[in-house]
């Protein structure tokens, strides 16, 4: 079993739907420890991605083509901290996924590349209360699943669970990167909005692979 460009398109559409559905929640999370625009930023970005997909003459040929379109669109429409971070994540992922179809190892390579991109861009380590805290356990869970011979859909399901746990685990952390770091210890007790949106995007990837 492999995941092809049609899966990637479905992933993107499901991500857009999830981000729209959770827009107010993401705004509220970002209001608590940031400037309250994360839901708006992400909804604007994914809406633009879907508009570009809808306007294509022919469906994208490879997973990499889909992810490159996501990367360039998010970079130019999301803004704030998350725009360049997600843009870089999807750009790196597009290079790792530049084949017709992904097996379990391809999924792992794509997720690892995304994490490397976020870290290269934002210089956050795990434990700083950012999207890195969702992506890092997601990658670890994906590696473990693939090592046990899981098919790509199960690798993504594991990644989504890792991201969920990682996002929840940001609640007790003190933010030391991004806008939330201005609050210092007052950032404790709140879920990081970027970790939450990362969870939503990985859950969308898993559900697109499962159906
Ligand atoms: P802004 O903070 O500019 O308003 P957003 O609200 O869209 O941007 O995104 C905020 C999210 O970006 C945070 O919740 C956090 O997950 C993520 N973030 C901020 N800085 C970094 C960083 N240096 N590395 C990784 N993620 C970061
Ligand atoms: Mg914000
Ligand atoms: Mg902002």
UniProtKB/TrEMBL annotation:
Its EC number is 2.7.1.-. Residues 6-207 form the DhaL domain. It comes from the Bacteria. Keywords: Kinase, Transferase. One of its GO terms (molecular function) is transferase activity. The keyword Ion transport does not apply. InterPro entries: DhaK_L_YcgS, DhaL_dom, DhaL_dom_sf, Dihydroxyacetone_Kinase. It is an enzyme of class 2 (transferase). PROSITE patterns: DHAL. NCBIfam families: dha_L_ycgS (TIGR02365). This is Dihydroxyacetone kinase-like protein. The lineage of its organism: Bacteria, Bacillati, Actinomycetota, Actinomycetes, Micrococcales.
